[in-house]
Specification:
The protein is an alpha+beta fold and 468 residues long. 35% of the residues lie in helices and 22% in strands. The protein has 17 helices and 18 strands. The chain has helices at 4-14, 23-30, 49-61, 116-123, 140-145, 153-156, 159-162, 194-197, 234-245, 257-266, 301-313, 328-336, 338-345, 360-374, 403-420, 436-442, 445-458, and strands spanning 19-20, 40-44, 66-69, 87-91, 100-102, 107-111, 128-129, 163-169, 177-180, 206-213, 215-216, 220-228, 249-256, 282-290, 320-326, 347-354, 379-384, 390-397. The strands form four sheets. It has a seven-stranded antiparallel beta sheet with strand order 15-12-14-13-17-18-16, sandwiched between helices. The protein has a five-stranded antiparallel beta sheet with strand order 5-6-10-8-9. Strands 1-2-4-3 form a four-stranded mixed beta sheet. The model has no long low-confidence stretch (mean pLDDT 94).
Length: 468
């Protein structure tokens, strides 16, 4: 139980203004980006790594539960408190000093509370960027804690590939500060401990600072929408586009008709790019980029893409029904508006799935049959990063389904993807209260035992909402 003495002690560590206990002040830290909403005993807002360490040490010593929170843009309830009113939210939003860019090394040192947009705005001054493309604007600490991927994973990978060094506060009685910030790209002189913290959702330690590998900003781009001739053509298209576009290929995003129709119907700023406004059953957004300005005598990316599309149309087996070259910002606007369109059209039951690329078409076909028979009122509105097997499998209910129906739908879909296809119920969104039961259900007992033992190595404090 968190009593007045605990609140006074925490206020002494971070300052009275930065210990929030008033309901109005706490509210934005208690409500998540999707359905999760809890009640915090207080919100603690340290401004330095040393203050984070002091708060963690105090919480561990007194058996208090901390829920680390970055930008609070996650979708699985990992960053918000439960409804007990007994947990402390440890917000990192004050750890936001100006990042330090090293253009020669092509790196940046950044605190956990800096937002992605803020970092990329600064990096743009040096023609650099952190190549994680998201619909939200998270903080860097949360991106590392969840190993965020995004729409350009195909080219650049997830956060794990961008992190060169970390500073972490361990959940032990001392609030130990572990400095792993060498920033070297190559170092086989010891175990690479930083990798353990990336994707651990704060359970092994709280990231306070990072050294990131950043990339040259694209200075050329070409974008198109491909309309497959059939669902069965999709895997073949992926392989041929990859082969034809090579290292220029930066994104392959799939979008179903139901998802696109809801975005175009509910998001006024969008323009329908399809001929006569007829939305196809499925479309694939293709993007090519280069990091240098156009050179004299060099084929433009538009020319490269046009040549690849011509080769696709010439295949003996029909693969393409149509292809639309277009302005990149307009086509990406459609992709990034899908979630908004779904929310505006009904109750969304969302899944963050990952499968082998070769299984995507079969899964889509089988799950459509299963849900059509058992839950005919649901509209399947899937989209996602099909080149890496990622699928945001969203279902839209036109009314207000009860909790029992939602639970049955989730059980049916998750069991199909994990048990029948060997896929993952959390491709990108990591673990939180919303999917903790799935972790317990589908993770082998031996893996859970080893994960728990590893957590105990770094500290015994109750940090995070994931029961590793």
């Amino acid at each position: 139980m968190i009593d007045r003495s605990h609140l006074d002690a925490l206020a002494a560590l971070v300052g009275d203004r930065h210990l929030l206990v008033d309901p109005a002040d706490k509210a934005r830290y208690e409500i998540g980006a999707r359905y999760d909403e809890g009640r915090a005993a207080a919100v603690v807002r340290p401004a330095t790594t040393a203050e984070v360490s002091a708060v963690v040490a105090y919480a561990v010593a007194h058996g208090l539960t901390l829920v680390p929170q970055g930008g609070n843009t996650g979708l699985v309830g990992a960053a918000t408190p439960d409804i007990s009113g007994s947990q402390l939210v440890l917000s990192l939003d004050r750890l936001n000093r100006r990042p330090v860019v090293d253009p020669t090394n092509r790196t940046v040192e950044v605190e956990a509370g800096v937002r992605l947009s803020q970092l990329n705005g600064l990096l743009a001054e040096h023609e650099l960027f952190l190549p994680i493309d998201l619909g939200a604007d998270p903080m860097i600490g949360g991106m590392i804690a969840t190993n965020t991927g995004g729409a350009r994973y195909l080219r650049y990978g997830a956060m794990r590939r961008q992190v060169l060094g970390l500073e972490v506060v361990l959940p032990d009685a001392e609030g130990t500060i572990l400095d792993l910030r060498s920033g070297l790209r190559k170092d086989n002189s010891r175990l690479d401990l930083k990798q353990l913290f990336i994707g651990s959702c704060g359970a092994l330690g709280i990231v306070t600072r990072a050294v990131l590998d950043v990339q040259r900003r694209p200075l050329q781009a070409a974008t198109a929408l491909l309309v497959p001739a059939s669902d069965d053509a999709i895997p073949h298209l992926l392989g041929l586009v990859e082969r034809g576009c090579g290292e220029y290929l930066s994104a392959l995003e799939g979008m179903s008709r139901n998802a696109m129709a809801r975005a175009l119907g509910h998001v006024a700023r969008l323009r329908n790019p399809f001929a006569r406004g007829e939305i196809p059953p499925y479309a694939i957004l293709v993007e090519l980029t280069r990091s240098w300005p156009a050179r004299e005598g060099e084929a433009s990316l538009e020319t490269v893409l046009e040549q690849v599309l011509g080769e696709l149309f010439e295949q003996e087996e029909p693969l393409l029904a149509d292809a639309l070259m277009g302005r990149g910002e307009e086509l990406w606007a459609l992709r990034h508006s899908l979630s908004e369109g779904l929310r505006a059209s009904g109750h969304v039951i969302g899944f963050d799935l990952s499968l082998r690329r070769s299984d995507l078409v079969a899964f889509r076909r089988e799950v459509a049959g299963v849900l059509g028979a058992e839950f005919p009122e649901l509209a399947i509105c899937d989209f996602g990063h099909i080149a890496d097997g990622g699928m945001h499998f969203n279902l839209v209910h036109p009314g207000s389904p009860d909790a029992g129906e939602i639970a049955r739908v989730k059980d049916r879909v998750n069991d199909l993807v994990v048990s029948s296809y060997g896929g993952s119920f959390s491709g990108e969104h990591a673990l939180g209260r919303a999917n903790a039961a799935l972790y317990a259900r589908y993770t082998p007992a031996r893996v859970r035992t080893l994960s728990h033992a590893l957590r105990q190595v770094f500290g015994t404090g109750s940090v995070g909402s994931v029961a590793y």
